Amino acid sequence: MKTVDGGVTAPKGFKAAGVHAGIKKSGKKDMALIYSEAPCRTAGVFTTNVVKAAPVKWDQKVVLESPFAQAVVVNSGVANACTGKEGYDCCTEMAAETGKALGIPKEAVLVASTGVIGAQLPMDAIRSGISKMAPILGCKRLDARLAAEAIMTTDTKPKEIAVEVELGGKTAVVSGMGKGSGMIHPNMATMLCFLTTDACIAREMLQKALSADVKDTFNMISVDGDTSTNDSVVLLANGMAGNPEITEEGEDYRLFCEALHEVMTTLSKMIAGDGEGATCLFEVKVSGAPDKEAARTLAKAVVTSSLTKAAVFGRDANWGRILCALGYSGVSFDPEKVDIWLLSRAGKLKIVENGTAAGYEEEEATRILSEEEVTAIADVGAGDFSATAWGCDLTLDYVKINADYRS
Fold it and tell me: Which family does it belong to (predicted)?
């Protein structure tokens, strides 16, 4: 497996486009389209929020009931959430218009939206965007980048990744693009992620791989503790790599899962590190947990702690906040067996040993915490399981961005 420079157009047969359709007053790109030359097996994972946006309901139906999917149409600027029957009808129209432009059934079109909740979609702009994108779909690197830029809201940078993997003697590619900056919390987030692959894999195995991996990737990121109405991760596989179809667990399935994990982990870290107002990616690694779920719970507790996130922003090694978060996680452990380290490119420093302060210099801790990527490592001494979560620091700019979001 190796990382290559690419986005959703890196696998064979995939094309993309991104344009300004007129949804955003800023004039920035606000619609994206992904298209596969061949029908795709499809898998999806969606928000756990009871309040689900219309596109989520549409896509769940496509993933569960449609024999294949072949396109994804996305708008940014308006979430199409809490919009009732009119909002769902807009999804149907978006899919129908896209299907008509591409010559595929509307049931083969996935729909996604991101932006302000409660507003109806400006369908004149949506229709205009679809008509603009269909003729300019391309498979070049720039086409993927334009699509990735078009789905951004408060994101500061596009998020893309592609990896190559050998499956049955054939080179396959797994790639993806995502967006997310705020309303990010474990068990999905205001996070849209579109994954493409030319691997040949059965639909059941595709869904199995996605559902299993999301537990340790997208379900382990947090920016602000808010779980969105629109969270969606969809995976399209068109089989054009020509590898023998993966129909069961085995070496090729393992390799595919490794490639998928690399893509999803990279996108998870990109989303967490680009949290609204963030100045650094905050990674939490927990080891010594009694079981895997306990390890995940402990890591999430620290990465979501507002006090810990604020301390990271202040470059303050206030380890008591980390230990406190571990303590209220609900996982049983002996506090007097906990060791904690801080890690970054500036070095590694043990700050807690057996539940009390280790001998360290505050200046060294501050230097470690001043990097763009900071890791807290906690060994709770209660078992053999580990997990990693990703978040960011909590800054003054986070409040400013969300106070002014609609205005």
Answer: Belongs to the ArgJ family.
CA distance 15 to 8: 8
Bind-site residues: 153, 179, 190, 276, 402, 407
Counting the structural domains of the chain, the total is 2
If pLDDT is split at 50, 70 and 90, which confidence band does 402 have? low
When mean pLDDT is compared across 170-179, 183-192, 222-231, 292-301, the lowest value belongs to 183-192
| Least trusted range by pLDDT, from 218-222, 290-294, 322-326 | 218-222
Residue ranges for the known binding site for substrate are 153, 179, 190, 276, 402, 407
Domain housing 329: 281-403
221 or 321: which leads in pLDDT = 321
Residues 151 and 48 in one domain: yes
Residue keyed to tokens 């559902």: 211
Catalytic annotation present for 247: no
CB 41 within 8 A of CB 63: no
Q: What is the CATH number of the domain that holds 397?
A: 3.10.20.340
Q: What tens digit of pLDDT does each residue of 55-79 get? A: 999 999 999 999 999 999 999 999 9
The reported pLDDT for the residue numbered 185 is 44
pLDDT given for residue 400 in this prediction: 76
Q: What is the DSSP letter of 135?
A: G
pTM: 0.88
Burial of 404 (0-12, 13-18, 19+ CB in 10 A): exposed
Contacts of 53 (CB under 8 A, 6+ apart): 47, 79, 80, 81, 82, 83, 87, 113, 117, 229, 230
Q: Are 178 and 324 found together in one domain?
A: no
Q: Are 87 and 121 in contact (CB under 8 A)?
A: yes
Residue 156: count of CB within 10 angstroms of its CB? 12
Q: 165 and 141, same structural domain? A: yes
Q: Which of 42, 190, 197, 227 is catalytic?
A: 190
First-to-last C-alpha distance (Å) of the chain: 45
3 state DSSP class of 23: coil
* Mean pLDDT value across the chain: 92
**Sign of the dihedral through C-alpha 115, 120, 125, 126:** positive
Radius of gyration of the chain (CA): 22
Same structural domain, 247 and 113: yes
